[in-house]
Structures are given as C-alpha cells and as structure tokens.
Amino acid sequence: MGISPVIWQFLVKWLTASALFPREGSTIAPWMDELYFFLLAMTVVGLVLVGAILFTFSVRYRKSVHPVATQIEGSTLLEATWTIIPLAIFLITFVWGAVLYFRIYNPPVNSMNIYIVGKQWMWKAEHPGGQHEINALHVPVGQNIQLTMISQDVFHSFSIPEFRIKREVIPGRYSTVWFNATTPGEYHLFCTQYCGTNHSAMIGTITAMSPADYKKWTEDSTSGMSLAQNGERLFASMGCNACHSGTAAARGPSLAGVYGSKLTLTNGSQVLVNDAYLRDAILNPSQHVTSGYAPIMPTYQGQISEDGLIDLVEYLKGLNTNYRVQQTLTTSQSDQTAPTTPGVVKP
Amino acid sequence: MSATATSILNLPDQATATIPKKNFITAEDGLLSWLLTGDHKRIAMLYIISITFFFFIGGAFAGLIRLELLTPQPDLVASDTYNKLFTMHGIIMVFLFLVPSVPATLGNFLIPIMLGARDLAFPKINLLSWYLYVIGGTLTLTALMLGGVDTGWTFTTPLSTHYLNTHVVTTAMAIFVAGFSSIFTGLNFIVTIHRMRCPGMTWFRMPLFVWAHYAASVLMVLGTPVLAIAIVLVALERLVGIGVFDPTKGGDPLLFQHLFWFYSHPAVYIMILPGMGVISEVISTFSRKRVFGYTAVAFSSVAIALFGFFVWEHHMFIMGVSNYSALVFSLLTMLVAVPSAIKIFNWAFTLQKGSITFETPMLYAFGFMGLFTIGGLTGVFLGSLGMDIQLTETYFIVAHFHFVMVGGMLMAFLSGVHFWWPKMTGRMYPESLSKLAAVVTFIGFNLTFLPQFILGYLGMPRRYHAYPPEFQVLNVLSTAGATVLGVGYLLPVLYLAWSLKYGPVAGDNPWQATGLEWQIQSPPLTENFPEIPIMDHEAYDYEWLEHKTAHEVKAVG
Residue B154: which of B252, B237, B222, B83 has the closest Cα? Predict the structure, then answer.
C-alpha cells in the first residue's frame, strides 16, 4: 500500500516541525539543563534498576522453574543500602536545586529593571524610559534584566520557558525574577497560573535584540515621558509634596534619598526601603509610620493604579534632592492662593 | 493441589461448586436492606458502585479535554467550557474517586475481616459517611447541571472569591460535605484498628494493607478539617467578603494556598498509601513469599504520613515565599521520597526466591511499580527548588501527578479489585480478557502521559485551551493514548459485570493466600466469622497455610 506523496510530505513536515527540547535562550538555561539531565539520568538509572530487578526475579523465580518459594525475613544491610543511596542522591539534588533557585531568584545588583503588570488577560511591560508594551517585551541581549512584577487582579505567572525562568505574579505584592538573554530572537511568554476565561490567551512574545537594535527600538517607541517623570507628575497631583516637601516644618518625612536606606518606624522596627516598602507605605500608611512623625497620612488604596504606583516608586528611587519638590510646591501654592497686596495686614 | 505450573489459581470443581447460600449479599433482600445496612461489606459495595459512576463522569471530561487538545486552536469548545471541563475533571476525580477509591471500597470491605472483627467500630457512622459522600456527589452534580464551576480544583483565591461567576459555593459545599465522609471513614478505621483486633492479632501481625490504611486514616482525620476550613473561608469571602484572603482588606491571598495545600499535599498520600497496601498483599500472594522487610514497609507508611504533613509549601516555591522556608520544604520533600523508594525495593525483593505467577492482579501490580517509580522520581525533579521553576505549572506536573495518581493509585485499585473480586462476589473474572485489559491500560497510560513530560519541559502550561502549533505532535500522541486508556478502563467494567452471573465459582481461597479474609467463605457471611478467630501466626505465613490446607484435606478424606 503506497502512501500519497502529498500526505507523506505533510507528515514529514508536521513531525519535523515538532519541538522536543526547548532552545537555550538565556544564561540560566544551561544551568537548568545540567540539572535536568542529571535528574533524567537518575530517573533512567532508577527505572532500569527496578525494571532489571523485577525482570530478573520474574524470570528466575517464576513458578515453572522455582516451584517452592524460599521464605526470607528481610535484610538490614539491604534496607540500609536502599535507604542511604537514594537519600544521598536526593540530597545532592536538593543542594543543586537550591543553588540554582537562589541564582534565579536573586537578581544581580547591576540589572536593568523593567516593570511587569499582569491583569486578566494581558501583560503590560513598562520600561524605565517610559516605553509601554502589551503582551510583548523587548530586551537587549547580554544584559542582566530584572523584572519587578505585580498583578492587578488574580494570581498570574510569568514564564519564558526558553529562558528557563518563571515567577508567580501576585496581587498586592512585587515579585522579581531576572535573566540575561544570550541569543537574539523571539521567544514564547506564557501565563502559567490559571487565571480565568482567557488564561490560554494571556501569552506574548519576548524579543531579544542586539544592544544596538534595542537602543533603536527604545528611541522609536518612547512615549515622551519616563516612568520617573510620570511619577513626579503624580507626586504633585496627588498632593504628596504638601507633606513630603523636605522642609523643616513638613508634616511628612523627606523622601529624598530614602530608597535603599534603613528607616526606624514608630513601632521601633527597622525596615529597608525597597520597591515593596514604598508601595505598601503609600497604600497602607498607618502600618508604616516613620519614627518622629504623626500617623496622619491617608490611605491611597483604590486611588492609584498599579501603573501609577510603579511610576511613583520609580520616581522616588531616583529622588536625591527636594529642590524640585519644593519648586513645584511653591508654584502650585502661588497658583492657588489669591494674590495679596503687600503691606495689608492679614485678619 | 490442582494449580498448574503457571498459575496458583485453584478453583473448586465447577460441576459441583456453588456459591454459599447464606452470605452477606443474600442475607437480606430489597433496596432498603442495602440503603439502611450497617454491614461494612454492603457499604463497600455501595461505594464501589458510586465511585465507578463518578469515575466515568470524570473520565468523560478527561476525554473531552484530550479531544480539544488534539488541535492547537481552541476549536471544540469555548474557553469557559474548557475551564469547566478540567475543573470538574479534577474535582470529581480527586474528591469523589481517588480519595475514597481504595479505603472506602476495599478498605471498608477488608479491614474488619483482616483484623478478625465482625464489623467496623461504628457501623452506623460508616453508613453515614456513604450518605455524606452521596450528598457531596449530588451537590457536585447539581453544580455541574446548573452550569459548572471553573476555578480549577485548587480554588485559587482571589480568582475563586472575587472574579468568577460560576457555582463556586455549591461546589465548595460539595467538597466540604464529602470531606466529612472521609473524616468519618478515617476515624472508623483508626478506632477499629486500635480496638477490634482479634486475640493474637498484634500490631506486627497485621497485614501491610491495614498498616497502610492506618497511616492514610491518620492523614484523613488530621488533614481534611483544614481543607474544610479553607473551603468555608472561600465561601464566606464570596458571600460576605470577610477579607481573609483579600489584600485590599489586609488579607493574604497566599494564605489560602497554605491552607489548601496543608490538606491537599497529605491528600496525595491519602490517595496513594492504601494503594501501596494493596500492592503489598498482591506481590506477596503471587510470589508465595512473605513481604521482604515487613517492618520497613510498615514504618515507611507511617513515615510517609508523618513527613507528608510538612512538605506542603513545595506547591508554592515560585510564589514569592521566603527563599529560606523554600529550602526547608525542599529538604523535607527529599526526605519524604525516601520511604517510597524503600517500599519499591522491598516489593521488588519480595520476588527474590519466590515462586512467581502472573495473574491479572500481579500484572497490575507490576504496572504500578513501573509507573510509580517514574511518578516518584519525577516528583524529585519538582522537589528540587531550581528545577521546579521550569517545571511547575506546566504539563510536566500534570504528567507527574497522573503517573502517581492514575499510574499508581488506579493501577493499585484495579489490582485490588481483581484480587479480591472472587472474595467479594464469590465468582472469578475472565482471566485472559482481564490480562488484556491490564496490558492495554499500561500501554495506553504511557502513551498518554509520557509525551506530557516532554511538553512540560518545553514549557506548555497546564490548563491551556490553546497552544503553539509546534506542540501538536506530542499532544496528538497523548490524545491517542487517552483513547487506548479509555478502552482499558471500559473493559473491566464490562467483564466484571458479566462475571457476576457467568464467572466461575471461586471457592474460599482461589489464590491460596494467607490473609484471614481468604480463610472464610466467599462471599463472606454478614458476621464475617462464625466465631472470632485467634491469630496464631505472622502475616504472610505460607508455611502455616500449607499446614492448614494439608490438615483440611486429611480431615475431609
């Protein structure tokens, strides 16, 4: 029976187009694959061992050749052997896995930070320069990229299989992951945590580009405002600068240089100011009152979107001096108060 | 002995053999006599019928899922329908099939007999637990009829509490009620095993089947209430918005997962431990040898139950838990893998110097050992922190837990059903057809789930309605395997039903097994034993059995 050449060609094409092993697209991928092959070898050896024991005994001691069983109680030596050897292998796996985990979940300090906001059912990426992307992420190769991610609604999970990274994107909390792409190209982005109706449509494309191409891309797709600039505008329009002005009489602490510093709170605890702390302090101020200040800040829960919070955080990260804060404040106050005639005594 | 060189099957002369007129099935007539029974054997039968019913509903959903995944496009059903399919498949299979499968059927039937007791400690609570199961099942079906639920069987908050408009509360009630069914079963087993052992039945003369059920019962009693709490909190959060899991009210969405997995990880051992008990009995019987390292196997069950409570966070390694707590939970996960390895090797060495035959229950047991080895070792992948990042939430994890739950537990269940079928019904199943079913199941299973490991490392996420086209070949293989697997599961239903009327009469002890259950008539009397037996030998004492059989023959002659 011959097979039609058309069908044959179709079959060959279909089968050869099938993926069997993911590309290695980041520096993490080879580390992950080493452990994977070790574990695969462990599985194959274990399976062959069990299979060989079962097969050998089944052949040698089947009833037709071994009609009467010899009763054996057990053997402490053998029990110890198959307790200690698997335990040793599992402990190697544990240490190896732990090292890899700490590598993937502790971003290097010099990473370039990109924010990711997940929502039903799309991914928003926000570059520091203000470039926004939906279901896409452009990154340069050869650079450590840290993703700071948060969800606006339910749990999502940000997965780039070919980079061997994945991290849960959690409502109300920043999570981070990092990678260093090695090969320019396009890669799958999946949401791997079930998130409702269009879970399987919450996908996107990661485009890794040479640094030159990436530079060109950032210039072509800028929105005109960086995240920090957006944040500065929000800082003024939400009225944050009224209290956090950095003057001696200000009702709130100065925020210049606060990022990365250690704060003492009124309850006596010490905290490191990072992205998560700043976000929490905006949404839930009564839990984060700096020592020496009154708990008068209102909550901004429900008033700022996650994007807005990212802008504010990004703004505060780079805030080194209160000069512009005070300038903005003065400008807005002089706009609001009616002009007064000099020399007239106020009632 | 009439057994041939390739089988230990020893059936009475079919021309003269009859089923004993007086037994637990014929003791009373009428539907009410079944629905109001306190007999653990009748309740086991009720369970067998009900879990088989739910197994095929869950199986039908699995079939539809695989059919949808035949093509990369979302073309067979709508996304919402697909989400409901995998949710209902998970809920039905986990809560209404796997958790009660071996304990409520074989365990219910056999534990009192294996201990030399007339019934469980609390026969009425045993019946109550079946009714709770039926109520839970009915509520699940109600939710299904009303339009289903699409939370996934894990009920992840805040999706389940704030974002879905399906019948979450009805389903939550179903699981809550079904949970009490399993708490009562566990409680009944624990009390029975402590208090109702016959004279001479010391702890270390109990069959390993009983040890495994004891460990599983402890898990049921301690773990299930936490699930009940978690599920009630989900319902309260939906209905009145108490805010325990809602970050905007100061709650923690991750807390739900801690609570849920605190039950649902031990639940995995609730499902697999009784299956391991079955395998111990079957391997021993068909190799005519006591189980190698009885105490090691018994204590490994207890160790699994103990460690099983302290590994739940390994479901959440990528979810922003503290890196250092992840370390602890990964280490504990590695430790819990060891007792399973111990069991596998002990079973394998039980064969050594045995006298092995390969009847259907033994074929299923071999299938179990192979598939459980793969399932267990791939669990080590997932317990290893770094590896988990790539594999979790993908088809790798789907394949892993199906190897353990379906390849492990379902194989063990089928092994046990075939093994004890002659005891429960008094009749044999057709041997060659059932061997065929065992082989078909094994092949179908591997074809279905091996490709999913590859898909998982490629990164195909679980619960995906559509997928990139380059994953299609592996998905087609998997769907093809599911078809074969479906045939493998349908066959036993057909021939077991057939055997109820036409199967050869089995006699008391067709396998010449040592357990107390084989020393009484098949099917047993309602009171199990005319007089309470005295256990004067170890479990799996084949010399005792030989001596006893020889003595009986003399007495008859």
Answer: B83
Is B395 in CB contact (< 8 Å) with chain A?
no
Q: Measured between CB atoms, which of A35, A57, A154 is closest to B387?
A: A35
A300 contact partners, CB below 8 Å, separation of at least 6: A238, A282, A283, A285
B169 - beta bridge partners? none
Q: Domains in chain B, start-ordered, CATH in brackets?
A: 35-556 (1.20.210.10)
Query: If you measure CA to CA, which chain B residue comes closest to A77?
Result: B293
Q: Chain A within 8 Å of B366 (Cβ-Cβ)?
A: yes
Q: Whole-model pTM?
A: 0.92
Give span(s): CATH 1.10.760.10, chain A.
Answer: 227-333
Buried b (16+ CB within 10 A) or exposed e, B177-206: bbbbbbbbbbbbbbebbeebbbeebeeebb
CB contact under 8 A, A39 and B381: yes
State how far residue A43 is from chain B, nearest Cα, in angstroms: 6
* Residue-wise pLDDT tens digits, A174-214: 999 999 999 999 999 999 999 999 999 999 999 999 999 99
Dist. CA B335–CA B339, nearest whole Å? 8
Q: What is the CATH number of domain A227-333?
A: 1.10.760.10
Taking 3-state DSSP, the helix, strand and coil percentages for chain B, each rounded to the nearest 5, stand at: 70, 0, 30
Residues in chain B predicted with pLDDT less than 70, given as ranges, are 1-4, 552-557
How buried is residue A298: exposed, middle or buried, by Cβ count under 10 Å (0-12/13-18/19+)? exposed
